[in-house]
Amino acid sequence: MPAFKTRPLTSEFGVQVSGIDLAEVSNPRVFGQIRALFEEHSALLFRGQDLSDAQHKQLAELFGPIEDRKADERKKGEAFEVPVVSNVREDGSITEEMDLHTLNLKSNFLWHSDSTFLPTPALTNILIGRVVTTEGGATELASTRAAWASMPEDLKAKVRGRGIWHRYSHSRRKISPELAKLPMFNKWPDQHWNALWRNPVNGREALYIASHAFKLDGYDEAEGQAILDELITFCTQPQFVYAHSWRVGDVLIWDQRAVLHRGTPWPYEQPRVLSSLCASVTEADGIDRMRMPT
Ligand code: OGA
Ligand code: MN
Predict the structure, then answer these.
(1) pLDDT digit of tens for each residue in the chain (294 aa)?
(2) Which segments of 194-288 does DSSP mark as H helices, in order?
(3) Which numbered atom of ligand 1 lies nearest the CA of 264?
(4) Contact by Cβ (8 Å): 74, 37
(5) For residues 54, 56, 59 and 62, what is the CA-based torsion angle, rounded to 10 degrees?
(6) Does the Cβ of 272 fall within 6 Å of ligand 1?
(7) Ligand 1 centroid vs 199 CA: distance in angstroms?
(8) Smallest CA separation from ligand 1 atom 7, residue
(9) Closest residue (by CA) to atom 10 of ligand 1?
């Protein structure tokens, strides 16, 4: 039994786990304990880790199939590479504040859950701090499970039992119409998910919502968007939020079924690089009950 310790990140959700070397979690018993913490606390922080890309992939695969949004873009024989959230070009220069690339990073400043626009959404994102900034650049998490549990009934009633439609280009359009037109944001048909995700392990419900959400069943688009905005505003009040200031070697893992996240601004002339691997949900994660007719 590894002697690891946990410490709460906030009073509502999230734990920091110490005493585990994530390079060695392939032992099923150790991973079983990590997975149990993930189901219970929705967000896990490990510090001082030194994971290679290969070890990062091994860890993600324990959660589920690795998400590969660029499968259709790669030529034959080109290997999958761990995606980075980065403002550093291949030649080492830094993308300018108004570059489409930087604007895409800024779209991450809108509260979201990853990949709600994919036919199979993400269960988790495992982010690793590679190059960090001297100020700003925190990643914030908000528990839609804790928020749902304390949401007033009249707000709950506006969304309970309904489906929400998600589209990648919708979140990009909020930042830049030009960005939204890029092919990479228009590859998938609109997705229709139940507004509430029930965790099959512990039965806890969480609001499943994102910046990608553009329509709520039973309302016209404007009315629906106003309710979606109201719901996100409720869920992201300070008591439901953990703000993570990055250090190199930090590993942050969260449950996309129950947590919203966003990036925050930094001085754009500074490099910032996070490795980011999503693992997709499987049936065991409760996806079947989320699908609504399209
Ligand atoms: C992501 C993301 C936010 C950040 O990797 O999915 O939204 O802080 N990142 O860069
Ligand atoms: Mn994200």
Answers:
(1) 557 899 999 999 999 999 999 998 877 788 999 999 999 999 999 999 999 999 999 999 999 999 999 999 999 999 999 999 999 999 999 999 999 999 999 999 999 999 999 999 999 999 999 999 999 999 999 999 999 999 999 999 999 999 999 999 999 999 999 999 999 999 999 999 999 999 999 999 999 999 999 999 999 999 999 999 999 999 999 999 999 999 999 999 999 999 999 999 999 999 999 999 999 999 999 999 999 998
(2) 221-235
(3) 8
(4) no
(5) -70
(6) no
(7) 23
(8) 108
(9) 263
